[in-house]
Amino acid sequence: MVPMRDEKPAYQGRPLPRPHDEVVDQGLGFDIGTLFDRRRALRFLGIGAAGVALTACGAGSTGATATTTTTSAASGEIPDETAGPYPGDGSNGPDVLAQSGIVRSDLRSSFGDSTGTAEGVPMTLQLTVSDLANGGAAFAGVAVYVWHCTREGGYSMYSDGVEDQNFLRGVQIADADGRVRFTSIFPACYDGRWPHIHFEVYPDQASITDSSNAIATSQVALPQDVCQSVYQQPGYEDSVANLRKVSLSSDNVFGDDGGASQLATVTGDVTNGYTVSLAVRVDTRTTPSAGSAPGGGPGGTPPSR
User: Fold this and answer.
1) Banded model confidence at residue 10, pLDDT cuts 50, 70, 90
2) Residue ranges per structural domain of the chain
3) Burial category of 210 from C-beta neighbours within 10 Å (exposed 0-12, middle 13-18, buried 19 and up)
4) What single string gives the DSSP state of each residue in 25-90?
5) How far is CA 51 from the centre of its chain?
6) Taking Cα atoms as reference points, which of 244, 256, 145, 153 lies closest to residue 196?
7) What is the C-alpha to C-alpha distance for residues 178 and 280, in angstroms, rounded to an integer?
8) Whole-angstrom Cα distance, residue 219 to residue 276?
């Protein structure tokens, strides 16, 4: 029997404009009509991709894998997240971005008038920035500011004992492939937060002198198995217990979607160091909406903003 017109494949009562494709591949117009904000869009993409994968498995397909699902879930814009209470970008006092020498690739040592060095398991951080407003092309020339805590869980410029240091902070300019690369150490897990790395994306190097110029503010989530290996090493003792008390789903930043598009891919080992990689998709057509700093964290009461 020939199917009736009203039997056309639909999603939530809405006919699919591309009935032979997956729900996540129906086009921008369909997405906009279904979704109301970026955060909801991210959740939809994750659920839709997983649902399609499960349906394919039930039908006997061999093509649905965890890797495929992760890629589909992470196809949208990187979520805007809080810069936290220790950004050092001038938004709440200390401003490392105004200091000569901030554009650098090796973040382990302080610069300028500070001379300290942060110890820990070696880590290379590689972020690849793409421009969704330009069809997902490499976002060459953007400035990416990265910062994270020490292996003890403190933040330079803020936390007790390292207020006079500026290590584990730096800026790189994206190359022709939209890539920036930093040499650093693996951060701790401090009480109340999942292990993470902060970053801000600016239009260009000249823009970093004003934190309001950032076109994206987000965080990189670190995989649990890698964290567990790192935290067995000397200097990370407090991280072992702290990691047991938190999860990606309970974290106050990653918890809304489990870090679906912020969970890094990591290779390496504790002896030779790790390479942490994440695709950062930025859409300049949207308005940045990073929230206020959450309470808690190392170094006592967060500074007022």
Assistant:
1) low
2) 21-73, 96-282
3) middle
4) GS-HHHHHHH-SSHHHHHHHHHHHHHHHHHHHHHTT-S---HHHHHHHHT-SPPPP----S---BS
5) 24
6) 153
7) 9
8) 13
150 neighbors 162 (Cβ within 8 angstroms): yes
More confident residue, 301 or 213: 213
CB 299 within 8 A of CB 158: yes
C-alpha distances out from residue 297 to 9, 145, 164, 193, 300, Å: 49, 20, 18, 8, 7
Token pair belonging to 90: 């001038």
The pLDDT of 95-112, averaged and rounded, is 97
CA distance 68 to 75: 11
**pLDDT tens digits, residue range 28-75?**
444 444 433 444 333 333 433 333 222 333 333 333 223 222 333 356
Query: Could you give the CA distance from residue 232 to residue 156 in angstroms, rounded to a whole number?
Result: 23
Global pTM value: 0.75
Fold annotation for 96-282: Protocatechuate 3,4-Dioxygenase, subunit A (2.60.130)
- The residue-averaged pLDDT of 267-294 equals 87
| pLDDT tens-digit readout, 152-204 | 999 999 999 999 999 999 999 999 999 999 999 999 999 999 999 999 999 99
Residues 6+ apart with CB under 8 A from 61: none
Q: 277: which 2 tokens? A: 């990689």
Tokens standing for residue 56 = 């394919």
Rg of the chain over all Cα atoms, to the nearest angstrom: 21
With CA atoms as reference, report the closest residue to 129 among 138, 120, 121.
138
